[in-house]
Write a structure and sequence with these properties.
The chain is an alpha/beta fold. It is built from nine helices and 26 strands. The strands form seven sheets. Strands 3-2-1-7-19 form a five-stranded parallel beta sheet. A five-stranded parallel beta sheet has the order 9-16-10-11-12, with helices on one face. The termini are far apart. The chain binds flavin-adenine dinucleotide. The site of flavin-adenine dinucleotide (FAD) has 35 residues, from α1, α2, α5, α7 and β22.
Amino acid sequence: MPAQYVIIGNGVAGTTAAETLRKADAQCRIVLIDDEPYPLYNRVALPNVLKGRTLPERAIIRQIPWHAENRIELLLETTVTRVDTDAKIVTTADGKDFAYDKLLIASGGRPNPLRAPGADGVRGIYSFQTLDDTKALIARAERSKTAVTVGGSFIAYELTEGFRHRNLEVHWLVRGPRFLHRITDEDGGALVDLLAREVGVQTHYGETLAEVRAEDGEVTGVTTQSGMQLDCQMIGAGLGLTLRTEFLRNTPVKVNVGVVTNEYLETNVPDVYAAGDVAEFYDPYIGTHNQMGTWNNASSHGRTAATNMLGQQRIAYTEVPYYTSTMFESQMAAIGSTPDVRPDMETLSRVDMNARVYRRLFFYEGRLAGAVLIGDIRVRRQLMDVIKAREVIPVDERQKLVAV
Ligand SMILES: Cc1cc2nc3c(=O)[nH]c(=O)nc-3n(C[C@H](O)[C@H](O)[C@H](O)COP(=O)(O)OP(=O)(O)OC[C@H]3O[C@@H](n4cnc5c(N)ncnc54)[C@H](O)[C@@H]3O)c2cc1C
């Protein structure tokens, strides 16, 4: 009998896994289930879609016929509601059952909603996770003058930059003392602030929303915790993701923040694997479990998990993930593991405000484990090689690595 594989989620983790399975096994049955209406699209391209630099349809990177050509049964707008790991069956909301020999959970995360008095049911408040979110953001931005963005990490930044690019007046509310406060220090925060202000963003730290004001169900403004009144026609929220594991509720699959796996991306239940954003995988670089929200982490996970599902070899995931992004008129990269996962890491940083360059390195047990770069990010590859080499780095060598 040909093997039967079911994959929950057709993001880059799930689709890469399907592709890997098909390349290695011409006979197997592959069922790829997703609740969104699109085949794989590039989420990393969504900020460019928001800015109007890329058309929404250009973000789609696997067309529907590709799935038929590769005999991947793609079910769109179909939600998985239940998994039975004893009977090895996945059930969807429309009552269909899919038997599996091996199951991959690649279900990503859902944006945390903005919770503030007055926000419930009001039009004009957006998350930024899907192609449909992006289309809705663009439609609203086209008839808005001012936007408020909320959140201190990458998605809030992308919203801020996207709105500013569209010439909206933007107020960026960051609850912490600076952007990415768990991985940058004061110097890094000051540089991001400078870059934001240089393109006209109005930044506000230590601020959250106290209230959303609305008229006729449409956002008209916000009141912040310190009492600031800002008029706006839209709010963009980047408040993190809740990983999507709800369909595992009645199973023995171990779930913490995400689906817990070992370095082979195997869960505690035989024949069930996890990959991508949803996987809380064992990370050998820092000797603990880790969860990443980056494109290349998700695609490498998909490949590794599929290889292990095929059963001919068992390979550990040892890639060094990285995230690169614009940072207003500059650039930014986050590489490897950062102290938000392991607060006991040693850090070393340098800034040159005139040159707009910042580098912060993270060491674990004397080895380089991660880095944040702003401005000049060309050193990224070199640092990734150093991380991979897993060698203890003497103090004077560390100074050379951090020199900007
Ligand atoms: C705006 C934006 C910008 C980004 N920029 C960058 C960047 O510059 N660099 C970078 O490295 N990363 C970036 N990322 C993050 C990166 O895109 C993600 O880490 C990556 O796409 C995750 O892929 P995934 O396959 O794990 O999950 P996803 O792409 O989230 O796919 C999971 C899919 O599973 C579906 N699903 C979930 N539950 C169910 C269910 N019960 N039934 C059926 N389907 C289900 C979901 O709807 C979703 O389509 C960005 C993300 C966003 C949103």
